Task: inverse folding
């Protein structure tokens, strides 16, 4: 990404000479002293002239919609504007120098080098001023509209980035970050992960389905016990059938666990391949060596390798972040489902032991146990209903928190007085922070209540 490091101007507007080095990762407020009219404060002190120097240096055009010779100081015949950019990724420097004269054509000098003492300075030669302007904008990854609408703002040329459409925002961010460059191998890896993820989801659905069926069978067993007086002759046969069905379902659960383990191994192999690709992206190896390493990894994983080698080097880096986020979500979901399976197994084993003990004493305690089961089921239903209500409240609070955080995301801190303000005049930052703190506290209380209810349900089951 290119950053503006230095601005130099001579005989431009009211400036005889301007040489300013910009601070990076800071918001800079410029205050001036109006030497003509004390009542105007900073107005007319030359702040907009500095923006003119930046606009002319990048685009070759002025912000004020005036002729180029009118921007030259009245006492001089020519003006000079120089800009210095630095690319934090490649370490390159881009130097732009423009000489504007009342009598002759504009003179432009553009050079690229790697440090200030670099002897191998590359001087850029173009046919005309328009070609130089085009080269500068393409090198910076911007368009003229981007510069005047989002980077250099004035009352004459201004279009709010926040009020732009989603498509325009994405286009601006992609051009600014060079996000259209990404390795096609990442996309291929993501495509190959899709069937594995679908298989994993299907296996989890099957486990949940059969777990539900096991619970249904358990309820049917309880019903059969209550009717044992009338069907005492068939009780032993029915119990054997239920035990056989339970054994079958447990065997099916073990098979699904084996499939999940295989999926985990395959995902782990893909994860190692992804780590290799990320290291290659951050390395300084040439493209040929990187492609050979990628070919070996893809061959070992039985993944198809893209044939269009030229297209591999120009893909979207933004997509890589999306893939990483999605993969992390899949891992988290997998862990959650494994926990659910373990919880279900534990609950099932507890119920099975209770059932075996119940079979030994069902003649004496059938009525009492039935009443206890009904009371426990009622308690679970009440706790589930209470949890559903708490989750609804939590969803509303999270929506409110997201809205408050969005308001605080636009807060600007004055580096001089540390005053916080936003572009929206109707936002009280302190009130928003207090509301956000209250909402977070309410959310924590709800989470504690849900956790307590789930613990009670776990104790019951």
Result:
């Amino acid at each position: 990404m290119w950053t503006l490091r230095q601005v130099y101007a001579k005989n431009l507007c009211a400036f005889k000479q301007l040489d300013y080095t910009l601070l990076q990762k800071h918001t800079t407020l410029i205050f001036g002293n109006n030497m003509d009219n004390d009542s105007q404060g900073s107005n007319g002190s030359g702040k907009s002239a500095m923006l003119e120097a930046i606009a002319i240096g990048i685009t070759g055009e002025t912000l004020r919609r005036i002729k180029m010779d009118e921007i030259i100081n009245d006492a001089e015949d020519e003006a000079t504007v120089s800009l210095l950019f630095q690319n934090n990724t490649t370490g390159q420097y881009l130097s732009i120098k423009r000489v504007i004269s009342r009598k002759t054509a504009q003179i432009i000098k553009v050079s690229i080098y790697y440090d200030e003492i670099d002897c191998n300075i590359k001087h850029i030669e173009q046919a005309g001023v328009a070609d130089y302007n085009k080269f500068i904008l393409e090198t910076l990854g911007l368009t003229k509209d981007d510069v005047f609408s989002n980077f250099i703002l004035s009352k004459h040329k201004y279009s709010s980035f926040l009020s732009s459409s989603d498509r325009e925002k994405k286009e601006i961010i992609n051009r600014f970050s060079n996000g259209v460059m990404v390795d096609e191998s990442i996309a291929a890896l993501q495509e190959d992960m899709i069937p594995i993820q679908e298989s994993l989801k299907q296996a989890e659905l099957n486990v949940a389905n059969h777990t539900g069926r096991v619970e249904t069978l358990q309820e049917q067993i309880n019903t059969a016990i209550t009717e044992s007086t009338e069907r005492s002759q068939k009780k032993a046969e029915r119990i054997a059938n239920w035990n056989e069905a339970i054994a079958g379902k447990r065997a099916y659960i073990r098979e699904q666990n084996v499939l999940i383990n295989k999926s985990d191994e395959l995902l782990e192999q893909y994860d190692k391949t992804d780590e290799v690709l990320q290291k290659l992206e951050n390395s300084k190896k040439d493209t040929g060596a990187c492609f050979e390493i990628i070919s070996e990894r893809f061959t070992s994983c039985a993944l198809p390798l893209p044939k269009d080698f030229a297209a591999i080097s120009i893909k979207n880096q933004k997509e890589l972040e999306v893939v990483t986020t999605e993969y992390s979500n899949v891992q988290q979901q997998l862990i959650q489902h494994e926990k659910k399976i373990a919880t279900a197994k534990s609950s099932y084993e507890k119920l099975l032991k209770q059932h075996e003990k119940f079979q030994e004493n069902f003649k004496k305690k059938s009525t009492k146990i039935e009443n206890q089961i009904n009371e426990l089921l009622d308690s679970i239903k009440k706790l589930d209903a209470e949890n559903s209500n708490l989750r609804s409240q939590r969803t509303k609070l999270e929506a409110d928190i997201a809205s408050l955080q969005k308001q605080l995301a636009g807060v600007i801190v004055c580096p001089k007085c540390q005053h916080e303000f936003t572009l929206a005049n109707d936002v009280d930052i302190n009130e928003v922070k207090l509301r956000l703190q209250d909402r977070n506290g309410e959310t924590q209380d709800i989470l504690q209540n849900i956790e307590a209810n789930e613990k009670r349900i776990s104790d019951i089951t």
Observations:
- The mean pLDDT is 79.
